[in-house]
Each structure stands twice: as structure tokens, then as C-alpha cells.
Amino acid sequence: MAGTTSTPRGLDGVVAAQTKLSHVDGQNGVLIIAGYELKELAGKVTFEEAAHLLWKGHLPSKEEAAALTHEIAELREIPATTLAVLRAAKNAPPIDALRMACATLSLDLKDPNDISPAADFQSAKMLVARFPTIVAAHTRLATGQEPIAPRKDLSLAANFLYMVNGTEPDPIGARALDTYWVVVMDHGMNASTFASRVIASTRSDMVSALTGGIGALKGPLHGGAPGPVLDMLLDIKTAENAEPWVRNELTAGRRIMGFGHRVYKVRDPRAEVLAKVADEMTHARLEDHSLFELARTVEGTVLRVLDEVKPGRNLKTNVEFYTALVLQSLGLKPTTFVALFACGRAAGWCAHVIEQHAEDHLIRPQSEYIGPKGLVVGK
Ligand code: ACO
């Protein structure tokens, strides 16, 4: 169904805001983050340094990076109320628990309604610091274990893995998660970023904006489903089985998870980066490389068969395909994948809230009324 005469349905292709934060070039497969191509940043800067780039507009000096990393580390501990909510939500999906816990984080702000640049920067550090603590605490509560207090001497990613497992992660694992968070931190005017900006545009606060952002990310059309990618690989089992499996799915009218994208018509540059991370993780840390090798074969087969069965649709590998392999190789459960995505995307949401508060213009589109008119009560 078409939209109004002036706007396409779902605002497809509509420019909803000007931003200096990120640009998605779907034709050329390029993602620009505040001036840098993703492949230039990923693996070269830490998540905290990349957050500085988004929040302050430039990569930090050594001193700035150390200061921001330290300030974020100091803010990791979650308040008792937040922990109480997580205990109550221990059986809820992790992304729901994160949304509920996030909403409590305005309780210990001096003035939750302060949306000045200084207050926003403080909230951004606090939110990015606490999301991983929340997800780790919930992961443990969900399996009947007590949460582990955060440490200040580890990077955000290393500390997350420590809080989940109770042991310090190896540097390759910590770096992989750190890179994953850099890879997903911002991506143009995606649905959750738009939702966060709409909330911020009413001069509402950052905690409210991120709580709404999490709600938008949760949906299967956005937060994606790297879980089903794993299911697919486990179901295919062997390289020989890949082609008949894929053809069978397509004949049944089902989609192949981890392929296709609304904006990218070539390989998603995030998939490119995460494929390398998955490769490194597998070969440096795991004795069994079979899942990675199978994924490589399945990727090639799916691309070939999609090209044949869906010619001209340009269905290429998206970010979810290798996300599944990276997070799975860290020993993390598929149910937590969307919440882990939110931990990275939080840096982008905060940056968009800062930008929207500076813009200070209410986002308030119109709707096209298609209901009846002139009805009379009682008739
Ligand atoms: N497998 C098989 N066919 C596909 C796939 C797929 N993964 N993706 C699209 N198609 C086909 C459609 O069936 C349609 O075919 P038709 O022209 O014969 O009807 C054609 O390609 C166009 O499909 P649309 O739905 O119009 O494409 P859209 O751009 O809206 O879809 C989407 C993008 C939702 C990501 C889609 O490619 C998809 O469902 N992929 C699988 C799920 C997935 O990997 N999701 C994660 C995306 S990344 C992220 O959100 C972070």
C-alpha cells in the first residue's frame, strides 16, 4: 500500500534529520562514522574512544581517552533499585529486562530533566557504563547465579565478560566484543535511533530516549535475529547439505537469515569486519573450527543460490550473519544477542540525543486520515 501522495509508506527514503554522526551508503557498502569509514575505526580504536568520537566530534587524544575510559569505569555499578528490578525480571527476555532497568537509571540523577550539554554528556557516560552491567547481572540471575560486581580496572568489554563468567577474559575475546560494539554503535536513521530522536525532540531526557530506543530495537524487524542464523547453521550441519537446505527454504517461501538489507545492496561493511573478527576468534581460541568453516561455505552457497533464485534483488550478507558467530564463540547465549546489540548502539543513541537537543526542533509529522467522516452519535 502506498503512503500519502507526498510521503512514502514507512518514510522510506525520507530524510528525517541532518546528522554529523553516521552515513550509510547502501550502493557502495560504506558506513561512515563521524568522518571515518567503519573499516578505518574497527579494531583500531576502543569502544570508549569511538564513543568520544560520536559525543565530542573527534577522536580523543591519549589524555582524553584515558579520562573518558576512567569516568565510564567509575559509573559501572548499578543502583540497588535497578538490581531489584532485574531480580523481579529474571525470567523476562534480556532485552525487556534491559528496558525496565534502563528506566530506573534516572532515579539517581541530580536533575533528570536537565538536558544541557553537560548533563547529557554525564548521562551518556552513565548509560553506556551501566548497560553491560545490567545485561551481565540479568544473565547470571536468569541462570540462578548472583550478579558479580563490576571491576574498574578492565575495559568495558573485558569487564562485561568478567561479570558474566567470573573470570577475566582472554585479550582476543575482549577485543572481539569491543570491536563488535564499535561496529554496531551507529547506523544512520535506523528505527531505534529515530525513536530516540523523536523522544529527545520533545525536550525529554536521555534516559527516556534510550528506554524508547530499546523498545524499538527489540522488534524482530530491527534488532534482528542472529539466533536464527545459528539455528540455520546447526540445522545444515554439513557443507554438502547447504545447497539442498537453502533451495528447500526458498522453495517453501522462507527467507535466509543473515542475508538481504533495506539499504545495503552490496555486502554490509559490518559483515566484512565481523567476518574477520570471527575468523580471528575461531583460529586463535577454538580447537574446533568446523562451525566457522561451515559458515563460510554456507555464505558462498546462499549468495550463489539467491542470485539465481532472486535475480536482481542484490541480496548480500548482512551484519547478523557474522554477529552470530562472534557472540556465540564468546560463549554468550543467543537470547542475550539483542541486549548486547543495545550495549553498543547505546553510544549512538546518546550521540543522537545530544545532537537532537542541540537542534531543539520538535519532530512531529502528520498522518493521512483514511477513516470515515460526518458520523452522528446514535445513528
Ligand atoms: N532470503 C530470501 N529472500 C529474500 C531475503 C532473504 N534473506 N531478503 C529479501 N528477499 C527477497 C524477498 O522475498 C523479495 O522477493 P520478491 O521480490 O520475489 O518478492 C525481495 O527479496 C525483496 O524483499 P523485501 O522484503 O522488499 O526487501 P527488504 O529490503 O524490505 O528486506 C530484510 C530487508 C528485512 C532485511 C530482508 O532482506 C530479510 O528479511 N532478511 C532476512 C532477515 C535478516 O537477516 N534480518 C537482519 C537484517 S540486518 C539488521 O536489521 C540489523
- The proportion of residues forming helix, as a percent range, comes to 55-70%
Gap from first CA to last CA:
32 Å
CATH class of the largest domain: Mainly Alpha
Q: Which consecutive residue ranges, at least 5 long each, have pLDDT under 50?
A: none
Number of helices: 16
Overall pLDDT metric: 94
What is the overall silhouette? globular
User: Structural class, from helix and strand content?
Assistant: mainly alpha
How big a fraction of the residues is strand?
under 5%
Q: Return the CATH architecture of the largest domain.
A: Orthogonal Bundle
Bound molecule types: acetyl coenzyme *A
**Strand element count:** 3
Give the domain tally: 2
Oligomeric state, counting identical vs distinct chains: single chain
CATH 4th-level superfamily of the largest domain: Citrate Synthase, domain 1
Q: Main β-sheet, in a few words?
A: 3 strands, antiparallel
Remind me, CATH topology of the largest domain?
Citrate Synthase, domain 1
**Strand ordering within the main sheet:** 1-2-3
In N-to-C order, the SSE pattern is EEEHHHHHHHHHHHHHHHH
Please outline what is shown here.
The chain is an all-alpha fold and 379 residues long. It contains 16 helices and 3 strands.
